[in-house]
């Protein structure tokens, strides 16, 4: 088991014990925030809780951002440390799912087991154990250790956390049967899949069976990319403000929406008053509606209130829904319209002179082409900003859990440390971090961690000397008053080399193909610096009146 962290005086008793055992592999980060994101990357890639250990004072406060990021995105993470200089319990309550101080050494086994249980049961999330220095120095009795047998233990690896899943109430099955009947009679159904589908391997498989049995198109939120093969005829890719236009057209014209494990937040919905008007019409007449399947009712309905909510583990509710569905009905006009939208509004790669700077679209398209036969062993992480959306839009994911990114919080600097954690969890995968220069600069010290542990992660830096998303928002919302978004960058190529990593720069589009081939063949940590002119604006796809103009006859 891998533990990520950074030592300090108050936590040295714990670090000393870890050093004396071979039960853990400790990964030394260069900043506590980096350690937290590494644990997140490890958790997302492995389906096991990421573990991070830091010390008191600023060491613990530097974990706040990773803990909050993990809380909002539902990532299981266990944080421990010797906290004495700040009231860490007060801080932790706002950014963790559960937290507890160890006040007696005999309580330690139970608290550790409670921590892992809370991190992985229900909707996963971060937990924190506060271990004072005197407790860290103590030794508990054998009798206390024996108490471990009466508490929950880790589930078997092939079914992570299955033994702690929330069972479905028998009464809910009747509701699912009614929903299945509505799906069978609907003419324009669509599935919106969220990250909850990735909680169990079985959920992704059942999603495919549901879509193919009833011929229902599938769209997705950012955090669920890959749980449905995006090259499949029924795939509609990402919805939302920066999603695929054809996915948003489908949502606006559907008469029934099945939402599996997604919250439907502001970025996925856009203008909530104008969201899915045809579904609302169908719901009023009892012919359709929004039917949301989710494990946690507390996160549902904050933006869009569903017609009906089914609370339960998707690995248990979806099989019952599948059983009640008929094979494809008369949906040929709907499926034909979907294909027409996909052709008409397909993402295009702009043509560029080979002697001009490359574009984000070209870079992602070339990476997608060169890894087309490797998709089963590609794991991608991203920083935050325009590059995050370009990657989600243009790269076609084909297997579960291929994309690890910061969703709800949008944490700058997430990509590099998350790639380190993912590489440790998946040593046989090619782990690629798509990053922007501004986001990369937040945690670029972790290149030293990748080099120190000889982790062959690959970084692609979209380098335009600024914050592209800030520029876009200032152009759109502040009458083109662009300010405070330009920054001075180091020479990334020389920086990477000074940190023991391979590196190369691409100045012109003609160098792109050979440079990406070089990157993929590197056996050591490597950085690819792609120089770009000011990044063009991402297309913003509204889901309101502009889309309502195109409706089915």
What's the total helix number? 24
- Which structural class is indicated by helix and strand composition? alpha/beta
**Sheet with the most strands: spatial strand order:** 2-1-3-4-6-5
Mean pLDDT: 88
Poorly predicted ranges (pLDDT <50, ≥5 residues)? 150-168, 543-553
Gyration radius over CA? 24 Å
> In oligomeric terms, what are we looking at?
single chain
Q: Give the overall form.
A: globular
Give the end-to-end Cα distance, rounded to a whole number of Å: 57 Å
User: Could you give a short account of the major beta sheet?
Assistant: 6 strands, parallel
Total DSSP E strands: 18
Question: Roughly how much helix do the residues carry, as a percent range?
Answer: 25-40%
Summarize the structure.
The protein is an alpha/beta fold and 553 residues long. The chain contains 24 helices and 18 strands. The model is unreliable at 150-168 and 543-553 (pLDDT under 50).
Report on the structure:
The strands form three sheets. The chain has a six-stranded parallel beta sheet, sandwiched between helices. Strands 9-8-7-10-11-12 form a six-stranded parallel beta sheet, with helices on both faces. A six-stranded parallel beta sheet has the order 14-13-15-16-18-17, sandwiched between helices. With 553 residues, it is α/β, with parallel strands linked by helices. Residues 150-168 and 543-553 have low confidence and may be disordered.
């Amino acid at each position: 088991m891998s533990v990520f962290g950074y030592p300090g005086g108050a936590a040295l008793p714990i670090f000393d014990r870890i050093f004396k055992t071979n039960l853990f592999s400790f990964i030394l980060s260069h900043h506590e925030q980096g350690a937290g994101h590494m644990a997140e990357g490890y958790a997302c890639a492995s389906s096991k809780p990421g573990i991070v250990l830091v010390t008191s004072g600023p060491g613990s406060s530097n974990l706040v951002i990773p803990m909050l990021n993990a809380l909002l995105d539902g990532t299981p993470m266990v944080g421990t440390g010797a906290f004495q200089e700040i009231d860490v319990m007060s801080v932790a309550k706002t950014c963790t799912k559960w937290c507890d101080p160890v006040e007696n050494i005999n309580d330690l086994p139970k608290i550790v087991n409670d921590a892992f249980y809370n991190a992985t049961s229900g909707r996963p999330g971060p937990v924190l154990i506060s271990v004072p220095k005197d407790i860290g120095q103590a030794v508990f009795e054998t009798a206390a250790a024996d108490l471990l047998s009466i508490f929950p233990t880790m589930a078997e690896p092939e079914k992570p956390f299955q033994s702690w899943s929330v069972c479905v109430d028998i009464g809910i099955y009747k509701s699912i049967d009614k929903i299945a009947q509505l799906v069978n009679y609907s003419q324009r159904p669509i599935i919106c899949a969220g990250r909850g589908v990735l909680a169990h391997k079985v959920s992704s498989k059942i999603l495919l069976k549901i879509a193919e049995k009833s011929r229902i198109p599938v769209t997705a939120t950012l955090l669920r990319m890959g749980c449905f093969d995006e090259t499949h005829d029924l795939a509609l890719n990402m919805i939302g403000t920066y999603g695929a236009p054809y996915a948003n057209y489908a949502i606006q014209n559907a008469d029934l929406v099945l939402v599996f494990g997604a919250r439907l937040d502001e970025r996925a919905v856009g203008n909530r008053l104008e969201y899915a008007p045809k579904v609302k019409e169908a719901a009023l007449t009892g012919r359709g509606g929004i039917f949301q399947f989710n494990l946690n009712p507390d996160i549902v309905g904050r933006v869009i209130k569903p017609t009906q909510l089914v609370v339960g583990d998707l690995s248990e509710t979806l099989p019952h829904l599948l059983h009640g569905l008929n094979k494809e009905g008369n949906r040929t006009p709907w499926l034909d319209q979907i294909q027409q939208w996909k052709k008409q509004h397909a993402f295009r790669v702009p043509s560029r002179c080979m002697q001009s700077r490359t574009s984000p679209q070209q870079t992602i398209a070339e990476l997608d082409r060169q890894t087309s036969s490797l998709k089963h062993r590609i794991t991608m992480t991203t920083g935050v900003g325009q590059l995050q959306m370009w990657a989600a839009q243009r790269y076609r994911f084909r297997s579960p859990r291929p994309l690890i990114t910061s969703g709800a919080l949008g944490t700058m600097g997430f990509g590099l440390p998350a790639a380190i954690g993912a590489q440790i969890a998946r040593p046989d995968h090619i782990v690629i971090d798509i990053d922007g220069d501004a986001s990369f600069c937040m945690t670029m010290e972790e290149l030293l961690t990748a080099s120190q542990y000889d982790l062959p992660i690959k970084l692609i830096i979209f380098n335009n000397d600024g914050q592209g998303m800030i520029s876009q928002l200032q152009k759109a919302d502040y009458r083109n008053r662009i300010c405070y978004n330009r920054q001075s960058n180091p020479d990334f190529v020389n920086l990477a080399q000074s940190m023991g990593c391979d590196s190369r720069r691409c100045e012109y589009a003609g160098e792109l193909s050979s440079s990406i081939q070089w990157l993929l063949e590197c056996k050591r940590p490597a950085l690819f610096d792609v120089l770009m002119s000011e990044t063009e604006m991402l297309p913003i796809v509204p889901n309101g009146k502009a889309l309502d103009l195109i409706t089915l006859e």
